[in-house]
Automatic annotation (TrEMBL):
This is Disulfide bond formation protein DsbD. Belongs to the thioredoxin family. DsbA subfamily. SUPFAM superfamilies: Thioredoxin-like. May be required for disulfide bond formation in some proteins. Pfam families: Thioredoxin_4 (PF13462).
Length: 253
């Protein structure tokens, strides 16, 4: 009986979560048909899994592997998509890290808030690593948040993403996510009309989705997923765990 009750509770929670996503997408005029970056045998869908598991980087990867020898996955990783890259650090850094993340992913939030500052200080600010952040929306809320970060402008992109991770209770888990986003974006000079216009921008949604589709082809099946000079790693990591993956690449130079 207890298991049955627990199952009913989980089903009710999922149904409620799914309905909130559908309501948000409808009110924000997001095209749910376009919100499916996964292809091939990837089983994850945008409305079913929420908590699994940063320009020059593409050129670095392309130089590392001759175009004629690139596999589809390597080619997808080297080509970010139609939107400008969000990158940190020197383009000439010996190590390039590409992260695919979502905004409603707890592991992504934990990495961004707990590990990223140390990674930036130890590797990015010292010229050892170029860090590239790419969008991998798992649901309509992810897509909407990423679109707003893009619409806020290139110089504000990271500040918006940081704010969305820190305030997820005010939008991602709020009864009215759209109103939560409208309220939060005021600090970046975006009024309700601008937020609505951004979320209704099909070209922007298509661009974010294209980045995610390339990620899926590159082998991303959950978030966060990292590619360190092309080598794949996934899941939340501490700075020490991250260092064990980066340092061998630096030592080999």
């Amino acid at each position: 009986m207890a298991r049955a009750a627990e199952g009913l509770s989980l089903a009710a929670n999922f149904t409620g979560c799914r309905q909130r996503l559908l309501d948000f997408a409808a009110r924000a005029r997001l095209n749910l048909r376009a919100l499916r970056p996964h292809t091939g045998t990837t089983s994850m869908t945008l409305l079913a899994r929420r908590s699994l598991l940063l320009l020059p980087a593409a050129a670095v990867l392309a130089q590392a592997v001759p175009a004629a020898a690139q596999t589809p996955a390597e080619k997808a990783l080297a080509e970010s998509g139609p939107l400008p890259e969000n990158s940190f650090g020197s383009a000439s850094a010996p190590v390039t890290v590409i992260e695919y993340a979502s905004l409603t992913c707890h592991r992504c939030r934990d990495f961004h808030l707990k590990t990223w500052p140390a990674v930036k200080q130890k590797y990015v600010d010292t010229g050892k690593v170029q860090f590239v952040f790419r969008e991998f929306p798992l649901n309509a809320l992810d897509a909407g948040g990423f679109m707003l970060a893009r619409c806020a402008g290139e110089k504000r992109w990271h500040a918006v993403v940081d704010m969305l991770y820190r305030t997820d209770d005010a939008w991602a888990h709020a009864p009215d996510p759209l109103e939560g986003l409208r309220s939060l974006m005021r600090q970046f000079g975006m009024g309700a009309e601008q937020v609505n216009a951004c979320l209704s921008d099909q070209a922007m949604l298509d661009g974010v989705n294209a980045v995610a589709r390339r990620g899926a082809v590159a082998g991303v099946t959950g978030t966060p997923t990292f590619f360190i000079n092309g080598a794949k790693a996934s899941g939340m990591m501490t700075i020490d765990e991250f260092s064990t993956l980066i340092d061998p690449h630096l030592a080999a130079r």
